[in-house]
Amino acid sequence: MRRPVVMGNWKLNGSKAMVSDLIKGLDAELNGVEGVDVVIAPPVMYADLAEQLLGKATNKIFLGTQNVDVNASGAYTGDISPEMLKDFGVTHVIIGHSERREYHNESDEFVAKKFGFLKENGLIPVFCIGETEAQNEAGETKAVCARQIDAVINMHGIEALEGAIIAYEPIWAIGTGKAATAQQAQDIHAAIRAHLASYSEEVAKKVVIQYGGSVKAENAAELFAMEDIDGALVGGAALQAAGFAAIAKAAAAAKA
Predict the structure, then answer these.
(1) Which candidate in 92, 97, 99, 189 is catalytic?
(2) Of 11, 23, 57, 181, which one is least surrounded by beta carbons within 10 A?
(3) What percent of the chain has pLDDT above 70?
(4) HEC profile for the chain?
(5) Which of 99, 106, 131, 169 is catalytic?
(6) pLDDT digits (tens, 9 = 90+) for 104-161
C-alpha cells in the first residue's frame, strides 16, 4: 500500500516566532500519529531554524522547501541549489506549482528540468500539476495533466517518477475555498494513474498522488477515503498546527 504524504506549503508566510510556534505546536499535535509522512515547506530563509526545531521534535516531521534552481552553482543571483537545500536537511521540494508557472513563467520543460535535477541530487520532487478554471470548464483537465506529466517522462523516462510525488492541484481550487468533491478528485487521480500505467503499471501503482486545493480538516477524511488520493498538499490550513495535524491524522486513519 502507498504511504500517504501530507505536506504543508507555507508559501510567502512566516517569521522566526511563527516558525517556532508552528513547529512546536505541530509536534505536540502529532503525538501517537503513525502511518503518514508529514512534511512542512517554510520559506527557504527559515530552513536553518526549522532544521534545528525539527531535530528537537518528538515526532518525525520532514523538511521541504518551495523551489529550487536547475544549476549547482555559479552566477545565478538569488537562486538556490539542491546541495544547499540538503545542507539544511531538506528532503522534499515543491516544483511546478501553478503560482510559479504563472508568476515566474515556468514552462512544462523548465519544471521537467527541475524534476530531473532534484532526482539526480537525491531529493524528492513534489511535482504539481493541474488545470485552470477555463480548462476545467472546457473539459481539458485530463489532457492538461497528461501534458504536464509527459514533459517529465519525455525528458527523463517513466522510471524517474519512482519515488517522486505528484500533487494534483486544480488551480481554480487553490486558496479560493472551492474544493473539488472527493469523487471529482478521485476521477482525476484515477485518470492520472491510468496515464502513468500506459507507460508502466509498476510505476503507476507506486507513485503517491496528493490532492491540493482548499484541503482542510473538514473535507480531509472524505478525500482520503478515495482509492487513488494518497495525501494532500495543503496551503492555508497548514499555517495552523491543530488544523494541519487533523489533516495528517485523517490521512493516517483512512489509509491504515
Answers:
(1) 97
(2) 181
(3) 100
(4) CCCCEEEEECCCCCCHHHHHHHHHHHHHHCCCCCCCEEEEECCHHHHHHHHHHHHHCCCCCEEEECCCCCCCCCCCCCCCCHHHHHCCCEEEEEECCHHHHHHCCCCHHHHHHHHHHHHHCCCEEEEEECCCHHHHHCCCHHHHHHHHHHHHHHHHCHHHHCCCEEEECCHHHCCCCCCCCHHHHHHHHHHHHHHHHCCCHHHHHHCEEEEECCCCHHHHHHHHCCCCCCEEEECHHHHCHHHHHHHHHHHHHHCC
(5) 169
(6) 999 999 999 999 999 999 999 999 999 999 999 999 999 999 999 999 999 999 999 9
**Would residue 195 show up in a list of annotated catalytic residues for this protein?**
no
Active site residue 97: yes
